[in-house]
Every structure is written in C-alpha cells, then in structure tokens.
Amino acid sequence: MDTTVDLDTFASLVERPDDAARRAAEERWLDLDKPRAGLGRLEELGSWLASVQGQSPVRAITAPKVLLFAGDHGVASLGVSRMSAEGGTARRVHAVLDGSAPVARLARRFGADVRVVDLSVDADPADFPAEVVRHRVRRGSGRIDVEDAVTLAEATAAFAAGMAVADEEADLGTDLVILGDLGVGSTTVAAVLIGALCGTDAAAVCGRGSGIDDKVWMVKCAAIRDALRRARPVLGDQLALLAATGGADFAAITGFLLQAAVRKLPVVLDGVVSAACALVAQRVSFRAPEWWRAGLLTGEPALAKAYDRLTLTALHDQEITMGEGVGALMALPMLQAASDALAEQGSAGPAAPLLPKEPAKLPTALELLGKG
Is 147 a catalytic residue? Predict the structure, then answer.
C-alpha cells in the first residue's frame, strides 16, 4: 500500500511553545542573585527551554541525541564537492558508527548519544546495521539539474519515515535533538531549495561547501541554476519540491522537523541542509520554527538567507563547515548550561514550579498518515 501524507494537518497540530512558562523563566532570571542580564545569551536560551518543556524551573537536559540523516545525491557526480561521490557518504557513515568521526568523539564528550538513519546511501544495505537502514527508501538519487531526485511516492515515504523517527525519539525520552546530515553533494541540493523558496538566483546561494575552488564553484553554480528552473514550477507543493530537487534524506528531515514540533521535541539545526528542510517545513506550518534553534553559521550564503527567513539567530560561529552535526553539537554545552543555571535556586529561596497542564495526547505519525 502507498503511504499518503496530509500536510495541511500540521498547520493545526503544531502548537506554540508555552508562553506562560517562558514568562515564569524570565521572572526567575530576575530573582537570581546576579546582575541584570548577567548571563547574556544563556538567559534567552533558558527561557526558550522553559517554553518548549512547558514548565519553569526547567528540567536539566539529560538525554540529548545527535540524529544524522544520510543519503547520496546524484548531482555529486558533477564533481561539485571535494569529497568523492564514489562511496564518500558510506565511508562517513562507517566513521560515525565506529566512533572515529569527530561528531562521535564530541558526542561522547558532551554526553549525547548518536543515531544514523540511512534514507538513500548509495551502498549495499548489508554494509550497515539493520537499525541504520530500517527506514531506507532507495539507493542513491537522481541528478537534480536534469531529473527528479526521487519519485513523489519515494519522497512521501521518506517524509513519513522522518515523522516515525520523531515519534521514536519522543517515545524514548530524548529531550533535545542535535540534527545533522551525511551526504556528498548535499550543500548543492540545499542551495537549490533555499534559492527556490527565497526567490534568489543561483549565484546568491552557491557557497564553497567542502572547500571547492573557483572552477568547481562555477560548475556547482550552473547545476544550482538548472535545478532552480526545475524547482520553480512545483514551489506550491512541498512534497513535489522535495521529490524534484531534494531527495529522500531531505524529505525525511522535513518530516522529522514537523513531527518533532507536533511532539514538542526541541531541535538544534546544523548548517545549510537542516536549514533548507526547515524552510520547507515552515511553508507547511508557520509555528514550527519556534521549536528549533539555529546551531551555527558556516559561511554558506544560503544558510544566512534561510536563517533570515526563519527568523533564527545562530548560537555560535566557530567556522565549522564540515556538517555531520558537529557545529550544532558544539551548541549543546550552551543549552546544558542554560538549563542548569535556570534550574538552580536563587538566594530568595526556591521558586514555586509552574506545573505543566495535563498534556493532551499528541498524535503519532501512524495516526497522521493515511494508507491508500
């Protein structure tokens, strides 16, 4: 049976974070024995955590998860990346799984678990653990400058897979997701989506990605230009857009972001790929970005445009450009510090907790998806 997704339901299902909890957190900051605004950005982050948790004082972040969606992109065959299109993504997946990748090392340092979800890596599924390939939609994808990345049915299945992953993480008790991606050529795809949704030309969104030179940049820019021509006719249909010029991993990340917002699971975005998917998700539900924070700046021009459209401000700029969730993961200590500081008792004695309302049952992906 084919999976169907009714995107219109997200507009009503995604609620805003709890404003009463935010105000209580802001008052709590004022009660602490410190200079006014003395903790700077941590105060805004702590108040945001209170709002997404629906309570004040906030709960300390104890179960963060680095979530990496993996997929290969046919446009990489044009040589738009310094990384090899032949097996490059698969090698990165293996490095994360065996613990040698930087994101795996840093996650251990910061106390976060790491999960990889393969949607369309161009490798034998037997090369990876069953849990990694459980949501795989296909092997590889089309070259978006001349053909669709995936079929509409595949994009829909990937979107539904991302929703299911959000449910799995919410049910496991994950309290913060560090969102990243693994895929050679992915910044080219992201630039197309952002350029299409922001109404810009190819040169305005074409960045250096993996560190390409001027000659390769021109090849990349031409590919983005041609893909933009294919994207514009389907701008009104988000799933069709993801099928034409996105890919299975992009569709899954978009579905994940929306269902995470439904399940009130906060997310930190990492770089231009997750920002591109966030833009698509924003078109589906304008409230959804309130459940996200932008992890970092990478120097990609498309990323700055996406953050501006999403009205998100990056938490840091450490010139991290490698993707894989590393930049977003570097924001985790700031969020942990914000939650710890706000949870501490002020000199005036313990503040009365703002108890969350009896939670309504949040719909899971299975309940939202129709089967046709």
Answer: no
- The phi-psi region of residue 295 (left if phi > 0; otherwise alpha if psi is between -120 and 50; otherwise beta) is alpha
Domains of the chain: 64-338 (3.40.50.10210)
Q: What is the pTM of this model?
A: 0.91
Output the 3-class SS for 256-301.
Answer: HHHHHHHCCCCEEECHHHHHHHHHHHHHHCCCHHHHEEECECCCCH
Map tokens 């995604």 to a residue.
14
Q: Which residues pair with 177 in a beta bridge?
A: 65, 267
For residue 344, the tally of other CB atoms under 10 A from its CB is 9
**Residue range 299-326: average pLDDT?**
89
| Confidence bin at 224 (pLDDT 50/70/90) | very high
Q: Would you call 116 helix, strand, or coil by DSSP?
A: strand
Choosing from 15, 147, 324, 358, the catalytic residue is 324
- What confidence tier does 360 reach under pLDDT thresholds 50, 70, 90? low
Residues 293-314: b if buried by 16+ CB within 10 A, e if exposed: bbbbbbebbbbbbbbebbebeb
- Mean of the pLDDT values across residues 268-294? 96
Cβ atoms 148, 142 nearer than 8 A: yes
